[in-house]
Structures are given as structure tokens and as C-alpha cells.
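Hi everyone,

Forwarding the result from last night's run.
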Amino acid sequence: MSDSRVIIAGGGIAGLTLGLTLHQIGVPFTVFESAREMKPLGVGINLQPNAVRELFDLGITADDLDKVGLPAEEWALVGLNGREVYAEPRGLGAGYNWPQYAVHRGQLHMLLYDTLIARAGADAVQLGAKITGYEKNTSGVVATIQTDHATRAETGALLIAADGIHSAIRAQMYPDQPPIHWGGAVMWRGTVRAKPLRTASSFVGLGTHRHRMVIYPISAPDETGTALVNWIAEVTMDEAGAWQQDGWFKPVAIDEFIHHFEGFRYDWLDVPAMLRDADCAYVNPMIDRDPVPSWVDGAVALMGDAAHAMYPTGSNGASQAIVDARVIGSKMLEHGVTEAALAAYDAQLCAPVSELVLRNRGAGPFGLLNLLNDRCGGVFDDIETVIPADERKDFMAKYKAAAGFAIETLNAAAPTIPQGARLNG
């Protein structure tokens, strides 16, 4: 293997996007993924315009993304009484140069995987191989690979940990890190065939800061007018700390949680009826990890959820993982496949994204519902008398700036990786 090879731990959205990026710029790599088979797991996620820009620059087209989701048209918050709190256009309709996409997470994952294999070859991703630890040496890093049959060592110039919230590499880097943080919120997630709300592609947050639904389509409507609609039902409990139950994304019966949402009935939406028609339902806690002071240990770096697992309140986890990959690639173009490239990546992203983790812990853009609750208990006749329009708009603008997708800044930004750029010319 080449001395400049990059070892990537984890073949999720983060690791595959990094693989595509390294292939694009001519850096040798291998992705090691613990799953024995790639399957389209998960339900809906959002890709913000800053991430879609990067996918387009990787040659993932709008037609490709249309096969796994659809462009988002609107983001809206609705109070528990069914009245609108805030709404704004998203993506191209908001003035971005790139759309925002609502996609099926598993189908996006498979799109990235299939694209990487088509471009870089079947050996680019080694399945059934988990990286359990590392050692640094004068020439780079030695990763320990565990398979069903043996344990072996793989050498490379750099090791990038894209192995998720349970990252073994992060645990070695920070052996005294606190347990995964749970703030007390439980989410039930699933999909249902239903007619989209408000527009053909609206993201609707409904309820209060402690008791809410998120609903948005992840496919275009068919000839019957129905689409595959992603839903998240969320309740904040009194307990908090470390999640004590077994499992993180387990199938669950609707009857186990529907009672929390029996009152969510409006002339434009019947939530209990929607839930009873659901195709599937899963339960998982709203969890993250406390930020760490650095994502880098010499020739080893964290990315994606291994670096910055965050609450999904800002719809920013997958988007930031994609951005991480592209920034790592850009720093390699500048510094080579070196520790200096990882240090530059760390310097650019670790501090601001760590702040974003904490901002999302404070409800992210759903913080408007916190304000609403503080000022009127969530019940109002005219939102202007509770949170004026300018205040609502300013609140959202601050979040977009923190998350890296403020319109003017993003539209004016040079490409993270220039078209045709390769490490060795």
C-alpha cells in the first residue's frame, strides 16, 4: 500500500463522503466498515445548502438526489394550538445558490456507497472490518482491524475516525470522556404515506419545546398526491444524564407512545391518525457528546459524529459530516497527506462546530418555541404580540450563521475544493 494512504474508520455518510473526496483529489485511501453488508438504514434527514453544494462539487447531481429525496421548499414552526409561529422559504426559494434536500437517510447512504464503488473500485470499502484502536509511529499510524476471523494491523499516513457516536478511536483519544449525554428527550421516528402539509415539501415543527412533532416529506408526491413523509414525535422527560436503556434505534409499537400526541388534532392535521398509518416506528434518545478541545491526535483525526455528535434539532448532523470531509480534502491539497493538514482542519472547524453542538443542545432553531413558552405558555392569538417578526427573523439568522449556511456568506464563498484540483497536479 502507498505510504500516503489514508485509513478511514467507518463507512457511513461521513466516511463515504471523505472517500469520494480523496478519490476526487487523487489521495489513496481505504474505508473499513464494521457492517458485513451495506443496507439502507434510517429514515429522513435534511441536507442543508452548504452540504448540497459539496455533493454537487463531488459530481452528485440534482437528479441523483431527486431519487433519494426532494428539495425542501419551506421551514415552518407551528404552536401547540395549530397557529403559525414562523415560516420561511428554504433552498433555492430562499435565495441560496443550492437547494436544501430532505432525503431518506438509508437511500442517500447507498447512493454514496454505490458511487464510491463505481469510481474507486470494490476494494475501496472493506466490509466486516472494524477499527478498534491505533498506534502512532514515525511514518504515520497503525490501525488495529478486527474481523470475524482475525485481528490484523493496517498502516497508513493518516487515520480518520468516521466511526460514529460510539467511536472506538475517540474513546482511545479521550479515555476519560464523559458518557454519551442525554438531555431527557425521547424521539420516536418513522415514515408514512400521506399528503404533504402546507407545500409539496414543507418541514413542519409543531408543538412546544418539550412536546412536539416534526413532519416533512422525503419523496415527491405520486399520482395520488401522497408522498413518503418522515415524522419525528418527541417528548422531554424529567430524567436526564446518561441513557440507561439498551439500544439506540429500536423498532417500537405505535401504541407505546401515541398517547402523548392524542391532543395533536387540527383541521389541517390529525397526528394520531397519521401515526396509526405509519409504515414503521423506531425509538431513540436525543443524545450527543460533550465537545472535546481537539479532534486531532497527530496523524489521527475525528470527523462526523465521532467528532461532534449533536442533537438533530438543527437538521445539521449529516450536513456537517459532509462539510468535514470536504475541509479535510482541502487541507490535504494545501498541506499534503500530513499531520499539518489535520491540524489545519481542526483549527478551522473544531471550535465553531463544538459551539454548534451546544447551541443545538439548547434547542437550536426550535428555541423559538422556548421563547414562545416563556412569554405566553405556547398559546396565542397573534404571534406578532408575542414574538415580533423582526425578532423571529433575527433568531433564525443567528442560527444559520452559527451552522455555516448563512445565505450571503455561503453564496459568496469560493468552492471548498476547486474544480479539477488534485494533490499531485
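The first helix runs from residue 13 to 25.

Cheers,
N.
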